[in-house]
């Protein structure tokens, strides 16, 4: 095989190589000057094949991982919403309305935000235009902020129920107040996301830098950069202030739970637990239930902080170091936050018995094995009334198995 001989006239016709344009023709395309081994193979081409294979393997692994995160997030959050809608016992707990709204926000993250972020991350190019880039960025800020505000409301709801007025909680936490709190969880993020981003307030003073990063190389990227005022304001409202409120609330809940546990222990040692009336028993049982729920929600909050703290720390630091944070670190912090949308349903399934039973009923098509057993059995009814805070069973023709009714009322 004869090597390529180049001249000014035929430089473009010999394997498409132009010696005058080394920037367009990489050294691996200079076939005429490659040294072949004794077996006739080309080491450089083998290296290219190896690099291409490694790149393809990384690409497949990345696509598989992102697809798994999105799929589990969609299915898990849908399962939470369906469980609360179908289970009457779950609907009785006001905190679960916050949980449903939180699951809805996480579901929207996995449907409206993650897919476009995954496409851009894989192809390293944004093909949907500048307007949709602003809309997608606004949705990202809105939904992630809504998630942490929901967790903040849940912690405040538990604090009010356990520490402040546990006996009148059900009368004070009315459906109207729950609706107002949930509405605030959506209105506040809308104010700090769509309004400033669509008006360009976040890019004041850094427009030139944003334009340079939008058209880096031959590709276009959806750049979201923020100036110092917006970075501080958005991060404080969306993360740091709610985080402080949640930490204080759960700390107070923990102290109150320990105090009640010591009181119950002292009563048991003194023999007073056996003489406590049914009202005290119900109050202690409710306190244990509330404490367990608070611990569960504390774990959920901790996972949220671990997922989103790297992003919000980077978001505040980057404007003060001349926007020198690498793009790879930004992508890692962002997707670590997105993973939180997948974690909440998993935490509910493993840590909350009521949710776990509801999940099993849904996944097993309502199998009788996972339904709540009926203690009275078919055809058995009982009537109860309250006198001075104590529950009493009335004698009726249907109360043939009175001990079963009493057992039910003491649960």
TrEMBL record:
Gene3D superfamilies: Rhodopsin 7-helix transmembrane proteins. This is 5-hydroxytryptamine receptor 4. GO terms for molecular function: alpha2-adrenergic receptor activity; G protein-coupled serotonin receptor activity. GO terms for cellular component: endosome membrane; plasma membrane; synapse. It is found in: Cell membrane; Endosome membrane. GO terms for biological process: adenylate cyclase-activating adrenergic receptor signaling pathway; adenylate cyclase-inhibiting adrenergic receptor signaling pathway; chemical synaptic transmission; positive regulation of MAPK cascade; regulation of appetite; system process. Interacts (via C-terminus 330-346 AA) with GRK5; this interaction is promoted by 5-HT (serotonin). The keyword Hydrolase does not apply. The keyword Glycosyltransferase does not apply. Belongs to the G-protein coupled receptor 1 family. Its main location: membrane. Residues 1-21 are annotated as: Disordered. Residues 76-348 form the G-protein coupled receptors family 1 profile domain. It holds the Pfam family 7tm_1. G-protein coupled receptor for 5-hydroxytryptamine (serotonin), a biogenic hormone that functions as a neurotransmitter, a hormone and a mitogen. Ligand binding causes a conformation change that triggers signaling via guanine nucleotide-binding proteins (G proteins) and modulates the activity of downstream effectors. HTR4 is coupled to G(s) G alpha proteins and mediates activation of adenylate cyclase activity. Keywords: Cell membrane, Disulfide bond, Endosome, G-protein coupled receptor, Glycoprotein, Membrane, Receptor, Transducer, Transmembrane, Transmembrane helix. Coiled coil: none annotated. It is a multi-pass membrane protein. The chain crosses the membrane at residues 60-85, 97-119, 139-157, 178-198, 230-250, 296-317, 329-351.
